[in-house]
Design goal:
three-stranded antiparallel sheet; 8 strands; alpha+beta; globular; five-stranded antiparallel sheet
Length: about 180
């Protein structure tokens, strides 16, 4: 049974994660770049991935109607990464999050997915402001956030034992149609 996409762009299909996506989640969350830029989520096998999906994206779908989505190429269905909206208690607003497998970097997928996701947040979910948080050293993600219309606001402490992250924001209330 095909899963209805939440969102489609020219090249990507974004849909809710399902438990059958566990192998993709294990692969993505164990990339050295994911661990370095986002953090180690302790996902090492299918059982860990099921827990991650249940407690993370799937819980957000139930509570808010959005969460991280599985991103695949429309041409061949290849899993390229994830992108979506997250509501985390520690952050002042909903944030856009994304991570892509290294073999798909440099092809504009992060921009394409994040831009469409933020627009969907404003349109479908009525979000007035969307933020993005990024490690200070992650220049590629900083460029993506800037390209989707976000502006740097300040350094932000996500966790007491970790370096502060850069907080970017796009306030739709300030935009004219």
């Amino acid at each position: 049974m095909a899963i209805r996409p939440e969102l489609e762009t020219a090249r990507l299909s974004l849909r809710r994660f399902v438990f059958d996506d566990a192998p993709h989640v294990v692969e993505l969350l164990n990339q050295p770049s994911f661990i370095r830029n986002i953090g180690d989520r302790g996902v090492r096998n299918a059982d860990d991935a099921h827990r991650y999906l249940h407690d993370g994206p799937m819980a957000m779908y139930e509570k808010y109607g959005f969460g991280l989505w599985h991103c695949s190429r429309r041409t061949d269905g290849a899993f390229v990464g994830m992108c979506g909206l997250l509501k985390r208690d520690i952050l002042p607003d909903v944030d856009v999050g994304y991570a892509f497998l290294p073999e798909y970097w440099g092809q504009g997928y992060a921009f394409e997915a994040a831009n469409a996701t933020v627009e969907l947040g404003a349109g479908k979910f009525g979000l007035k402001r969307v933020i993005g948080v990024v490690s200070d050293h992650n220049t590629a993600s900083i460029r993506v956030l800037e390209k989707i219309g976000m502006s740097y606001e300040r350094m932000f402490p996500m966790r007491p034992d970790e370096p502060e992250v850069r907080l970017y924001a796009r306030d739709f209330r300030l935009e004219t149609s």
